[in-house]
């Protein structure tokens, strides 16, 4: 095997000098393409589904359930939700689906998330497609230029994500009502919402920005025992950040789909009590 640093005919990008003169583009023999292919398929499926639901502007509320894609509802053209997340802050001029107003915040949080960056960089841009597999791009500028430099606003989307998670927690509490808004009831949808909000909070708190906010600036943990415990807790969640990212992405889509099925009359929400 040649180990010199002479330039190759296809020089450019990672193949430029002083890369070792290995004829093969990589030496991996496993199915390295499978992981980015599955990631691309999963993310693409969610984008298609969420786009359809966001622009549908229908079947997003069936008392007491409201789709997480449409909460909080900030336009006058929202469905009336008794004690629900209604706040017509934009007045009557907004004519599009109200989901488009609020989805920018959880979408921005996920798009700038450290894990999701890795996922869609590899899956859609092949940058790089896998470890030890050269990317096809001739130049690499990282996240120093527009538009990728905007990834640095992730920490601010984290604060917005906290507010959204708070509203979704309120929506979950409202699922303990029946269709006539009486408290003390529980249906299958309540369990769906409980599972979803647990995963939403776990994913949000496992964020790298959250871990840094909790304990990243501390120099002496011994002087801040409570923050140290919180930092260790967030750190354990952070170790499962990838799994929580996918689980919460799936749960929010399934929760919306459940509301869609109930609101469109496909079936009635089973009630436990």
Textual characterization of the structure:
The structure is a single chain. The protein is mainly α. The chain is built from 8 helices and 2 strands, in the order αββααααααα. A two-stranded antiparallel sheet has the order 1-2. Strand 1 and strand 2 form a beta hairpin. Helix 1 runs parallel beside helix 8, helix 4 runs antiparallel to helix 5 and helix 5 runs antiparallel to helix 8. The longest helix has 23 residues. The chain is globular, with a radius of gyration of 23 Å. The N terminus is likely disordered.
Describe the structure concisely:
With about 270 residues, the protein is mainly alpha-helical. The chain has helices at about 35-55, 100-110, 115-125, 155-175, 190-205, 210-215, 225-240, 240-265; strands spanning about 60, 65.
What's the shape?
Answer: globular
Query: With helices defined by DSSP (H or I, 4 residues minimum), what is the helix count?
Result: 8
Mean pLDDT: 88
User: What would you report as the Rg, rounded to the nearest angstrom?
Assistant: 23 Å
Sheet of most strands: 2 strands, antiparallel
Uncertain segments: 1-11
Could you give the count of β-strands?
2
SS content category: mainly alpha
Instruction: Please report which band the strand proportion falls in: under 5%, 5-15%, 15-25%, 25-35%, 35-45% or over 45%.
Output: under 5%
Describe this protein with a few key phrases.
273 residues, disordered N terminus
